[in-house]
Known about the structure:
There is one protein chain. The chain is built from three helices and six strands. The protein is an alpha+beta fold. The chain starts with a strand and ends with a helix.
Amino acid sequence: MWRIEGFLDSPKRRCYSAWSAIEGDRMTKAELIESVASKVDLPRAIAERAVNTMFEDIVEALKQGDKVNVSGFGTFSVSTRKARIGRNPKTGESIEISASRAAKFKAGKTLKDCLK
């Protein structure tokens, strides 16, 4: 299991908000990069490399079947789904659905508390 310390940890366990300058109901990757660049006083290109590297490392760990635990934020893991028989809703015909793997995320306590 991979572990990344300190994202939402602080002496008072404050919740950090990246939504202050964002319009709408979702944050895009570009807005995340811009937020990181402005909060850490980095050039945008370096912030983009840092964000991309973080995502690449998470994906690589998940490909290997590892869990990634970001302390206070949550845990990324891989869920394995068995092969099964399904039904085509249009025709009613039985079809075989192959086994697959999917990414899963479980929010940590600090993140859950911030969302209350």
